[in-house]
Design brief:
Order of helices and strands: HHEEEHEHHEHEEEHEEEEHEEHEHEH
Distance between the termini: 42 Å
Number of strands: 16
CATH class of the largest domain: Alpha Beta
Low-confidence stretches: none
Shape: globular
CATH topology of the largest domain: Aminopeptidase
Oligomer: single chain
Structural class: alpha+beta
Radius of gyration: 23 Å
Helix content: 25-40%
Bound molecules: (2S)-amino(hydroxy)ethanoic acid, manganese (II) ion
């Protein structure tokens, strides 16, 4: 239980937590939660969310890229909308809260307005983005990019680990890859984009606060590296004559870690995936693929770091006589949250009786794509121990309820930016 925070019976938080648990049961395997873009589990999850949207009084549909979209009309039909959203895909072996908390809380807020028969001078739309994590294909934010009209069609040709192209996966999901453009929305249709999300870090917990105002979403660069040497017999090739791709990759990984550890300004680097071929105990690895994720508080800092890391990897490959293929698979600049939205979120937090605290987001969010067509605001909700991208991810009921109350208040008091 969050320190000293009361939860009423039949609170929004109770509905949110119940639905988080139900959605968290939809996974590609029974023991862990994994729900990647265009999987059959994602389709099952989409149908569940569409049902929740409809029972909250929204018109709901699946858009051209697989996003679930609900619309609650304002005082009259066809008004521009306040868009609320987050994602409903997950990483592998995920927690239940990263993404779904924002989608489910937004639906519960709309349901509450609907119960009260309340219509606002603007429409509300809730979007559950189908891909934010970028786990399956070599790109992220596919759902929100499609809505922002910045979907890169060349990604359709990329293949997942099983060799299935995104184009084929879209068809299997029941979508038409040639009509992704239909998901795009216009700037004039949106008054703002707001997202509620778990913090995924320990700062709010250290502050003893259930919610916070996000100042900016840090940019990120992702690269795919492939080192190729020569596969050979583990018993016969002397050490000095080997071109071992896995030993080369290990040196690269250590160099990345060292480089980021010696940076005192918040640079972080992660190698989260590695695959060695042919992959047998008695065979020298001939080829290794791995990914690199680099983030820093400013874009200039991140770009300098990426350039340095690339130089180091090139030098390691050269010294070990390995051929190197290194591609940037994804790059996102830092997305600042709009001051006028931060102010409205801060008012709502204060009105709920909490201290207003601002913090940046080190994690990526759909707002990074949505900023191309709307001003972006974000509310963070405390999560236990700051743990995320891990099945131990957890939000207390009281904090889920606090987040829902703050979001509802932001919606009810929302004033569009004065132009
Ligand atoms: O990787 C990220 O920052 C996000 O969770 N997709
Ligand atoms: Mn995530
Ligand atoms: Mn997320």
């Amino acid at each position: 239980m969050g320190a000293g925070i009361a939860v009423r019976n039949n609170s929004l938080g109770e509905e949110v937590v119940r639905r988080i648990t139900e959605l968290g049961g939809i996974s590609e395997d029974a023991d862990t939660l994994t729900r990647v873009y265009l999987s059959k589990e994602l389709r099952t999850a989409a149908d569940l969310i569409l049902g929740w949207m409809r029972s909250a009084g929204m018109h709901a549909h699946l858009d051209a890229v697989g996003n679930v979209c609900g619309r609650y009309e304002g005082e009259r039909p066809g008004l521009p909308c306040l868009m609320l959203g987050s994602h409903y895909d997950t990483v592998r072996d995920a927690g239940k809260w990263d993404g779904p908390l924002g989608v489910i809380t937004a639906i519960s807020c709309v349901a509450e307005l609907n119960r009260r028969g309340r219509r606002l001078p603007f429409a509300i739309e809730v979007v559950g983005f189908a891909d934010e994590e970028g786990v399956r294909f070599a790109s992220t934010l596919l759902g929100s990019r499609a809505v922002a009209g910045t979907f890169d069609e060349s990604v359709l040709a990329t293949r997942d680990r099983d060799g299935v192209s995104m184009r084929d996966a879209l068809v299997q999901f029941g979508l038409d890859p040639d009509h992704i453009g239909a998901a795009a929305r216009m700037r004039r249709e949106l008054l703002a984009y707001l997202e509620l999300h778990i913090e995924q870090g320990p700062v709010l917990e250290a502050q003893n606060l259930p919610v916070g105002v996000v100042t900016a979403i840090a940019g990120a660069t992702r690269l795919a590296a492939r080192l190729t040497g020569i596969a050979g017999h583990a018993g016969t090739v002397p050490m000095a004559l080997r071109r071992d791709a896995l030993s080369g990759a290990a040196e690269c990984i250590t160099a990345i870690e060292q480089f980021c550890r010696t940076d005192t300004n918040g640079l972080v680097g992660t190698v989260g995936y590695l695959h060695a071929k042919p992959g047998a105990t008695n065979v020298i690895p001939g080829q290794v693929s791995f990914t690199i994720d680099i983030r820093a508080p400013t874009d200039a800092h991140r770009k300098r770091a990426v350039a340095d890391i690339v130089r180091q990897i090139e030098a390691i490959a050269k010294r070990r006589d390995l051929s190197l293929q290194l591609d940037v698979t994804h790059e996102n600049r830092t997305a600042p949250c709009a001051p006028w939205l931060k102010e409205q979120i801060a008012h709502a937090i204060a009105a709920e009786g909490f201290s207003v605290f601002e913090l940046p987001s080190g994690a990526g969010h759909d707002g990074m794509a949505m900023i191309d067509i709307a001003d972006v605001g974000m509310i963070f909700v405390r999560c236990r121990g700051g743990i995320s991208h891990n099945p131990a991810e957890h939000v207390e009921l009281a904090d889920a309820d606090a987040g829902a109350r703050v979001l509802l208040r932001v919606i009810e008091n929302f004033r569009p930016r004065e132009s």
